[in-house]
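User: Let's play a game. I give you a shape written as tokens, and you guess the letters that built it. Ready? Here's round one.
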């Protein structure tokens, strides 16, 4: 029973950390604010995380790993890049609709120049880029002159920017839908050629 309570507390801490960091920013959020939001003591957080940076690293890696696992699965099961992109974009749209604070957290941390980008996330992106490139060459959906970096910039950069613009209501405040996903897939496929 104690272990279950501890896992619940840790989950509460993680949710609180995301909420506080999204509200106050990475540099504005403190361990004390996170602990207060999670209804635990500062000491409890320090028993599990050396500092705020470690907590943020753990949260970033866990959330990125969920996304990467989906992309790896899709690369193994989809017949073409179109299917991989559709699966990836559906996941992102579902996440932004169901847990917008998680997407905001990922975007915020990803764009914080003081954040030390975790090696595991970097390696997963590189592996995904290589796999997308190889599958795209095989299916003739990618021009063989495209680099891995270009493939990643197109397949992740463009849709993520669209999500961020929609999340911030820069041009439209409508929720992303199937038509938007179809459009993002088409734009990416055209850019990859």
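Assistant: Ready! My guess for every position:
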């Amino acid at each position: 029973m104690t272990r279950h309570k501890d896992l619940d507390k840790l989950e509460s801490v993680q949710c609180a950390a995301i909420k506080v960091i999204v509200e106050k920013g990475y540099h504005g959020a403190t361990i004390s604010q996170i602990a207060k939001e999670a209804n635990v003591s500062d000491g409890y957080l320090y028993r599990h995380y050396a500092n705020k940076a470690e907590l943020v690293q753990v949260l970033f890696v866990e959330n990125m790993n969920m996304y990467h696992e989906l992309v790896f699965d899709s690369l193994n099961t989809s017949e073409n890049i179109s299917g991989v992109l559709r699966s990836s974009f559906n996941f992102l749209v579902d996440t932004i609709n169901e847990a917008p604070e998680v997407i905001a957290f990922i975007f915020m941390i990803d764009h914080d120049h003081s954040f030390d980008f975790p090696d595991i996330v970097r390696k997963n992106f590189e592996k995904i880029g290589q796999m997308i490139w190889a599958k795209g060459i095989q299916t003739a959906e990618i021009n063989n002159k495209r680099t891995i970096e270009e493939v990643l910039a197109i397949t992740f950069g463009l849709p993520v920017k669209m999500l961020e613009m929609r999340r911030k209501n820069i041009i439209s405040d409508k929720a992303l839908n199937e038509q938007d996903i179809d459009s993002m897939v088409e734009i990416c496929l055209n850019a990859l050629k």
